[in-house]
Design goal:
Blueprint lengths: L8 E10 L4 E8 L5 E9 L3 E7 L5 E8 L4 E5 L2 E3 L7 H13 L1 E11 L10 E11 L11 E6 L1 H9 L6 H19 L1
Parallel strand pairs: 4-9
Antiparallel strand pairs: 1-2, 2-3, 4-7, 5-6, 5-10, 8-9
Length: 187
């Protein structure tokens, strides 16, 4: 049996936390069937940009950094958060790549995804970056101390298998970009 799906209505919203990185909202919702769901927590994040940077050798730029939530060092893609000063997600991606790695390049949007549509309000904008060129030294940020290197796809897949590259959102962006690259080769 097919049910008619409709958005919930919001009876009330209360902000529990607001800062530069996250806003936590508690909604009182009413479903299409008239059921009250309260509190329903919503996380209001700024949009995120993920960059799959590929050099002329077809190697992928991988960063390594400490992630406090998991208390481990992970291999990841270069990523960043859109700030109020960024005109759009592309501007955020270019700024973040330059800050984190010192690289510039040619950016192509390959997809827009939702990190978790059940609770998150933001999107992830995934870019393939080709022709990477070092422009300056990376900006030092105490919360983002990274090492980075270009590595081949086989090594990246091995990192995923060994749970060294384990951030699910980064893996999704990587595979989205690889799918676009493969499609271009077959067109």
């Amino acid at each position: 049996m097919k049910r008619e799906l409709k958005p919930w209505s919001i009876q009330n919203s209360k902000y529990l936390l607001k800062d530069r990185w996250i806003t936590v909202r508690a909604d009182t919702c009413i479903t299409k069937e008239g059921k009250k769901i309260s509190p329903y927590y919503v996380l209001e994040y700024p949009h995120w940009a993920h960059m799959v940077v590929i050099n002329h050798k077809k190697q992928i730029l991988i960063l390594r950094q400490y992630r406090h939530g998991a208390k481990r060092i992970f291999a990841e893609l270069p990523v960043g958060t859109m700030e109020s000063s960024d005109k759009n997600p592309l501007a955020a991606a270019k700024r973040e790549l330059l800050e984190e790695t010192g690289y510039i390049g040619h950016f192509k949007l390959v997809g827009i995804t939702s990190p978790n549509p059940a609770t998150h309000t933001n999107n992830i904008y995934t870019y393939i970056v080709t022709n990477p060129t070092i422009k300056k030294a990376p900006k030092n940020d105490p919360s983002e101390v990274t090492n980075y290197t270009f590595t081949n796809l086989t090594s990246v897949l091995s990192l995923i298998k060994r749970r060294k590259f384990a951030q699910a959102l980064h893996i999704a962006s990587l595979f989205l970009a690889l799918q676009k690259i493969e499609k271009r080769k077959n067109d």
